[in-house]
Amino acid sequence: MKAVIRGLVGAVLAAGLVLTPPLAAQSLALEPFLPFEGAIGVPGASDTWTFTGQEGQVISVSVTGSGGLDPVVSISNSGGQTLTSNDDYAFPGSTDALLQAVTLPRIDTYTVTVSGYGETTGDYTLTLLPGYAERSEVDDFSGTTSERLWDAAGGVGSAEQTDSLARLILPEPRLQGRLTRTSLPQIDDFYAQVAVQVERGPAGWRAGFALRDTPGTGYYALVVGQQGAWRLDFIDDDGEARQIRDWTSHPAIVPGVTRFTLGVLVNGSGFDVFYNGAYVGQAVETGTPAPSAGRIGLFASTPDAVTADVTVAFDDLAITLPILTDDAEVMPSRLVTGGQAVTIQELERRRVIPAGGALALTVPESSGRQVEAGVSRILLGRGATYGDMVLHTTFTLQTVTPNALAACGLLFANRADDQHAVAYLDTQGGYGISARVGENFAPGQFNDGAESLTTGRHSLIIVRRGERVDLWVDREYGGTITLPAELLDAGQIGNAVINYERSETGCNFADTWVWTF
Known about the structure:
The structure is a single chain. This protein is mainly β and 517 residues long. 4% of the residues lie in helices and 54% in strands. The protein contains 2 helices and 38 strands. Strands 10, 12, 13, 15, 20, 21, 22 and 24 form an 8-stranded antiparallel sheet that branches.
């Protein structure tokens, strides 16, 4: 067991994720990958740890409570700004806390804080993993039983499994080889990372993963090459390669380096690639055939050169899977703050939207004014309509009448004056989504408790997928509605100014954009 722990620690260190011992009130060290058991003994107390993370790195933190503790978990940066937090990710079925597939915005020292909701106290178990939140497989290649052995697929090259390493040996030019383990399950979406050591490659080398390996169809080859770049191909059963993304360089990938950790987050058609923990790019599958599930293997190839041969040693393979609630995605309670690219990356990795898509509209600034009670709609996009999308804006509000109840909002699914939907935040901290069909307002969604709109700049994000619409207010999750059938084919968007009573109200909007998928 100690050897396994050391291997896991080595894998995480290589990936750039290092947890340090807890601060102040706690004296026990927290090992990477290992569940840590702690306790909140006094209402209002909290435990904290720090870790260093890379720009674009993706991690998950889970906290399970017992003995009466309703845990709350948060991640903050070195400046003390809370990036994301959670309480009761599967309420009412569970009061446990989960932050799944969180994107770290920059190289920094981050703090994980665990506390109890309200006056609750008790024990907890804290686990931090790369990628998703469910540990599926950890292999340090020390196993000797048949179900733990790796073989050279199709007899291409040879396999060795000694000294807690799995080696793939390719003795000739123009070989594409992979190591497989038949006891691994076929999976669809996952995160995987492995430590790679190229021991021999005099004429050049490629090494990495075989992903979604499916007999009779093929597999994806994600590789790093000696020139300091990565690429993704789909290789069919005949060995023919179809390029998904050509060679892509990144400052984190240094040419000629033969020891590194390669990671990949696979989500639907998207492949997010990590090198020593740093995010180095994304590839999106747009062609067919495209297997949606398969086994994970290890890959290497030799170039077309007379003297070519390659030996690659692999160590510390780790696979994590997304946790679901009632077979549905875990909706993030708070999104990491960032620009358009960070927001889309967060929504993709946290499985709110599919990978891929495109930026369809940007409006740097707009404004609206309303005096009478009612809704002033500011249409954007010159009549264009949008279906499945992410719609974002930031705004400030000014009202002449003190204490007037007014709101700024995002208009979507708009067809006419009496057929549209609006997401909004008002001057009293109320927020929600309202859909109008004729003279009727369909049952919508309303909450309160947000920061008053009378102070500072605020943001709204809606995600529309078919009939479902989800809302984030100041990046905190605000709820969901089902669009009325009459609005399913309506798609104009815009900004909105809302007066609940007569008052001169103005909303100034900035950074309004639409991402379609």
